[in-house]
């Protein structure tokens, strides 16, 4: 029994550790001016509308409209007040350099510009000294897959382009730091430029994707729209917009 | 050289056990010494489908745990000279299966049998994983229906990555073939059901056979007779054709087995026929 289990584990464990890009969802709180009594009352009212919905929700404070709020004490106070209301505040965004320093002193990370959706997403893990320098120093390594990528499989090209000669099934995931080329039908999820490369593109013979993402900006099959080209397409970022275009 | 063939699907209720029994019986009828193993520990069904449930004394789990010899657990079929069944336990669960135990039993069976058919449980957990782990070939049973196709696709991914052959890492792979069951040509033509082309396009593996939806399948199951023994049934004939292809014969794919109707399937499968 025991030996059987450990054997299965040995088989499943390929590397002692893995580092993967990951996208998280967080909520963004837009401040306009200093948080005063009226602000907290409005906040309480909002939280009371859906009592459990925001419990322990990861939260980012958006300071775009609150230029004046730049003292560490202000942010410490604000963070404490938010945490008291069961909001897990962990960072700020759209802050000035002064605000970023104040945030650091208050134990909050400063995030590079996320984008508002219905909920705010955070595509990168802040400015922590992650293994990025080591990875950047290495040669890019492209990856080629010559079999269909089946439902439930994930293929990850962590340092370069990914080429799939075959189809990507519904429920499968192909992820690359660089471009993704699929010589077949894309039915699953494709995430290109996961380390933040906004110039990465996705190419496929036939598009039937569940999700397309470049540098953290994504579209799902639901909001692709009926006029989206479906054959021989490329997907790329134009500013903040994910474009899908038929190849000429 | 003996072959281990796993009959698997991911999804439940698509006809794995029925197909295992029919394929096992078909191989035996063709003169190959065949054993069918039930890997669905805790939900023992194969013995009923094969009509030997009253003769089970020792089972697969007893053999794995060393409580019984393999010879004691093997049940010889009363109808077919070359057919044996290795039933599983109804009282234990899938944790009773171990990789080493399964390997030891399969190695011993390989000495004696031409074909070892492993009837996989549904799902992708321990039972299903061990049923496919030592397989040389796989018969992926799929209904022409989206959830069944997706689950089969998942199973094909596991066959390509989590089987003993795949883990050798020398490019060898489990040879997987598709058995499309419960197929209704009229409903497929009217668009209610997925077409054969649609399923093949998604799964991208060779087609072993198309088993038509047939009342004879349920009847045969309840009687404890593998459906391939029913010569009059279209499903039985389709299974015999599939068995022929499984052993490497070139057999034309027929919409209604036994009838020489030209059309859809000939066009579709003209290249293999």
UniProtKB/TrEMBL annotation, chain A:
<dbReference type="GO" id="GO:1901891">
    <property type="term" value="P:regulation of cell septum assembly"/>
</dbReference>
<keyword id="KW-0717">Septation</keyword>
<dbReference type="InterPro" id="IPR013033">
    <property type="entry name" value="MinC"/>
</dbReference>
<keyword id="KW-0131">Cell cycle</keyword>
<dbReference type="Pfam" id="PF05209">
    <property type="entry name" value="MinC_N"/>
</dbReference>
<dbReference type="InterPro" id="IPR016098">
    <property type="entry name" value="CAP/MinC_C"/>
</dbReference>
<comment type="function">
    <text>Cell division inhibitor that blocks the formation of polar Z ring septums. Rapidly oscillates between the poles of the cell to destabilize FtsZ filaments that have formed before they mature into polar Z rings. Prevents FtsZ polymerization.</text>
</comment>
<keyword id="KW-0132">Cell division</keyword>
<feature type="domain" description="Septum formation inhibitor MinC C-terminal">
    <location>
        <begin position="144"/>
        <end position="245"/>
    </location>
</feature>
<dbReference type="InterPro" id="IPR007874">
    <property type="entry name" value="MinC_N"/>
</dbReference>
<comment type="subunit">
    <text>Interacts with MinD and FtsZ.</text>
</comment>
<dbReference type="GO" id="GO:0000902">
    <property type="term" value="P:cell morphogenesis"/>
</dbReference>
<dbReference type="Pfam" id="PF03775">
    <property type="entry name" value="MinC_C"/>
</dbReference>
<dbReference type="GO" id="GO:0051302">
    <property type="term" value="P:regulation of cell division"/>
</dbReference>
<dbReference type="GO" id="GO:0000917">
    <property type="term" value="P:division septum assembly"/>
</dbReference>
<dbReference type="InterPro" id="IPR005526">
    <property type="entry name" value="Septum_form_inhib_MinC_C"/>
</dbReference>
<feature type="region of interest" description="Disordered">
    <location>
        <begin position="122"/>
        <end position="142"/>
    </location>
</feature>
<protein>
    <recommendedName>
        <fullName>Probable septum site-determining protein MinC</fullName>
    </recommendedName>
</protein>
<dbReference type="InterPro" id="IPR036145">
    <property type="entry name" value="MinC_C_sf"/>
</dbReference>
<feature type="domain" description="Septum formation inhibitor MinC N-terminal">
    <location>
        <begin position="17"/>
        <end position="88"/>
    </location>
</feature>
<comment type="similarity">
    <text>Belongs to the MinC family.</text>
</comment>
Automatic annotation (TrEMBL), chain B:
<dbReference type="GO" id="GO:0051782">
    <property type="term" value="P:negative regulation of cell division"/>
</dbReference>
<feature type="domain" description="AAA">
    <location>
        <begin position="3"/>
        <end position="149"/>
    </location>
</feature>
<protein>
    <recommendedName>
        <fullName>Septum site-determining protein MinD</fullName>
    </recommendedName>
</protein>
<dbReference type="GO" id="GO:0000917">
    <property type="term" value="P:division septum assembly"/>
</dbReference>
<comment type="function">
    <text>ATPase required for the correct placement of the division site. Cell division inhibitors MinC and MinD act in concert to form an inhibitor capable of blocking formation of the polar Z ring septums. Rapidly oscillates between the poles of the cell to destabilize FtsZ filaments that have formed before they mature into polar Z rings.</text>
</comment>
<keyword id="KW-0131">Cell cycle</keyword>
<dbReference type="Pfam" id="PF13614">
    <property type="entry name" value="AAA_31"/>
</dbReference>
<keyword id="KW-0067">ATP-binding</keyword>
<comment type="similarity">
    <text>Belongs to the ParA family. MinD subfamily.</text>
</comment>
<dbReference type="GO" id="GO:0005524">
    <property type="term" value="F:ATP binding"/>
</dbReference>
<keyword id="KW-0547">Nucleotide-binding</keyword>
<dbReference type="InterPro" id="IPR027417">
    <property type="entry name" value="P-loop_NTPase"/>
</dbReference>
<dbReference type="GO" id="GO:0005829">
    <property type="term" value="C:cytosol"/>
</dbReference>
<keyword id="KW-0132">Cell division</keyword>
<dbReference type="InterPro" id="IPR025669">
    <property type="entry name" value="AAA_dom"/>
</dbReference>
<comment type="subunit">
    <text>Interacts with MinC and FtsZ.</text>
</comment>
<dbReference type="InterPro" id="IPR050625">
    <property type="entry name" value="ParA/MinD_ATPase"/>
</dbReference>
<dbReference type="InterPro" id="IPR025501">
    <property type="entry name" value="MinD_FleN"/>
</dbReference>
<keyword id="KW-0717">Septation</keyword>
<feature type="binding site">
    <location>
        <begin position="11"/>
        <end position="18"/>
    </location>
    <ligand>
        <name>ATP</name>
    </ligand>
</feature>
<dbReference type="InterPro" id="IPR010223">
    <property type="entry name" value="MinD"/>
</dbReference>
<dbReference type="GO" id="GO:0016887">
    <property type="term" value="F:ATP hydrolysis activity"/>
</dbReference>
């Amino acid at each position: 029994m025991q030996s059987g289990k450990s054997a299965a584990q040995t088989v499943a464990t390929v590397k002692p550790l893995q580092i993967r890009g990951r996208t998280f969802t967080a909520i963004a709180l837009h401040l306009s001016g200093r948080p005063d009594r009226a602000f907290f009352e409005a906040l309480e009212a909002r939280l009371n509308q859906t009592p459990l919905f925001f419990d322990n929700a990861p939260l980012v404070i958006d300071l775009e409209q609150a230029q004046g709020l730049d003292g560490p004490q202000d942010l410490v106070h604000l963070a404490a007040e938010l945490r008291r209301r069961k909001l897990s505040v962990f960072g700020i965004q759209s802050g000035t350099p002064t605000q970023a320093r104040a945030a650091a002193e208050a134990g909050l990370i400063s995030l590079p510009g996320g984008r508002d959706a219905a909920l705010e997403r955070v595509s990168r893990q802040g400015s922590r000294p992650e293994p990025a320098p080591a990875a950047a120093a290495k040669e890019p390594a492209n990856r080629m897959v010559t079999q269909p990528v089946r439902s439930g499989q994930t293929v990850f090209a962590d340092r370069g382009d990914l080429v799939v000669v075959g189809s990507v099934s519904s429920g499968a995931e192909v992820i690359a730091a660089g471009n993704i080329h699929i010589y077949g039908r894309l039915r699953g999820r494709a995430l290109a430029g996961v380390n933040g490369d906004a110039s990465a593109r996705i190419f496929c013979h036939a598009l039937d994707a569940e999700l397309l993402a470049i540098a953290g900006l994504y579209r799902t099959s639901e909001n692709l729209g009926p006029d989206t080209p479906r054959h021989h397409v490329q997907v790329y970022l134009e500013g903040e917009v994910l474009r899908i275009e038929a190849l000429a | 050289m003996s072959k281990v063939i796993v009959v698997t699907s991911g999804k439940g209720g698509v006809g794995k056990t029925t197909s295992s029994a029919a394929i096992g019986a078909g191989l035996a009828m063709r003169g190959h010494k065949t054993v069918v193993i039930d890997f669905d520990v805790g939900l023992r069904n194969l013995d009923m489908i094969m009509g030997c449930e009253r003769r089970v004394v020792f089972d697969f789990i007893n053999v794995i745990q060393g409580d019984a010899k393999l010879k004691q657990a093997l049940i010889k079929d009363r109808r077919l000279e070359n057919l044996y069944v290795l039933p599983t336990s109804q009282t234990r669960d899938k944790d009773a299966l171990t990789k080493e135990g399964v390997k030891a039993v399969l190695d011993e069976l390989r000495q004696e049998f031409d074909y070892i058919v492993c009837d996989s449980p549904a799902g992708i957990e321990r039972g299903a994983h061990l049923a496919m782990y030592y397989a040389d070939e796989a018969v992926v049973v799929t209904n022409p229906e989206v959830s069944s196709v997706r689950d089969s696709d998942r199973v094909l991914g596991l066959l390509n990555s989590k089987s003993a052959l795949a883990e050798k890492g020398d490019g060898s792979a489990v040879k997987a073939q598709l058995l499309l069951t419960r197929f209704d040509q009229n409903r497929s033509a009217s668009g209610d059901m997925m077409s054969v082309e649609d399923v093949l396009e998604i799964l991208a593996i060779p087609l072993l056979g198309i088993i038509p939806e047939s009342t004879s399948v349920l009847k045969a199951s309840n009687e404890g007779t593998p459906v391939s023994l029913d010569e009059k049934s279209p499903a039985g004939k389709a299974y015999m054709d599939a068995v022929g292809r499984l052993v490497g014969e070139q057999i034309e794919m027929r919409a209604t087995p036994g009838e020489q109707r030209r059309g859809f399937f000939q066009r579709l499968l003209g290249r293999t026929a």
